[in-house]
Amino acid sequence: MRKTSLLALLLAAGPALADGAQQSVATGGLPAGDLTSAAIRMVLGLAVVLALLGATAWVSRRFRMGAGMRGGLIEVVSGLSLGARERVVLIRVGGDQVLVGVSPSGMRTLHVLNQNPNDSQSGNGAGAFSNYLDRNS
Hints:
By secondary structure, the protein is an alpha+beta fold.
């Protein structure tokens, strides 16, 4: 008897429970006629998600893993794009500099410089120029 009355109660309340669940899913718990506020909530939710996405992108650029690796053995000095998929990159390895070509088919060493060209130009280049001027004066 008790089971029968419980079953009758559930069957009677079933349509009311189902109707309430449909309203809350469709409009986020708002009455069916209040779609303007549901649209505003949806737009604000989208804005929050996009703001979080932008903040995550900014943080990942700001705290890149490669930026903290300065002073390591290998450092990219400069790079130049030659085409849509080709690049030339100057890499410093210890005291040497290596010019590397990068393409879709792979990487190739183009030239190896045994000393830093900036040091040789500023130190020896100025001395060689002054010696040239002294000889021709």
